[in-house]
Design goal:
The chain is an alpha+beta fold and 115 residues long. It is built from 6 helices and 3 strands; from the N terminus they run ααβααββαα. It has a single domain, classed as Arc Repressor Mutant, subunit A (Orthogonal Bundle), CATH 1.10.10. It is globular.
């Protein structure tokens, strides 16, 4: 993926918020991302599918759950840009609130199942 395509994939706030969450955790299921961002699961699924098409994310199905993670073939410069962005927005809204909600969601879980 060239740099123009990379930045176009991240040019939507919802997609950027999803990627910022996935930088903070090894993998997250769709419903937890939707809950953390306070958006509908169908909307989040569409954005995650776009990020997967851009080769920024990969997914893994486990029964009825779909987990997303950063794509293992991200180029070093792409990963560095994402990490720098994460550091830059860590205290900004809505990114900081997204991470807090994700932590609360994870604390409320009883077991390893999603949702």
């Amino acid at each position: 993926m060239n740099s123009e395509h990379f930045y176009k994939c991240l040019a939507n706030e919802t997609r950027l918020r999803c990627v910022m969450l996935l930088l903070a955790r090894p993998q997250i299921c769709v419903c937890d991302i939707a809950d953390a961002l306070k958006l509908s699961q169908p909307m989040i699924s569409r954005h995650l599918a776009q990020l997967r098409t851009c080769n920024l994310l990969s997914d893994q199905r486990d029964g009825q759950w779909v987990y997303y993670r950063l794509h293992h073939e991200l180029k070093a410069w792409q990963f560095n840009v994402l990490k720098a962005t994460q550091a830059g927005v860590a205290t900004e809204q809505p990114f900081a609130a997204d991470l807090l909600r994700l932590a609360e969601i994870e604390q409320q879980k009883t077991g390893s199942d999603c949702c």
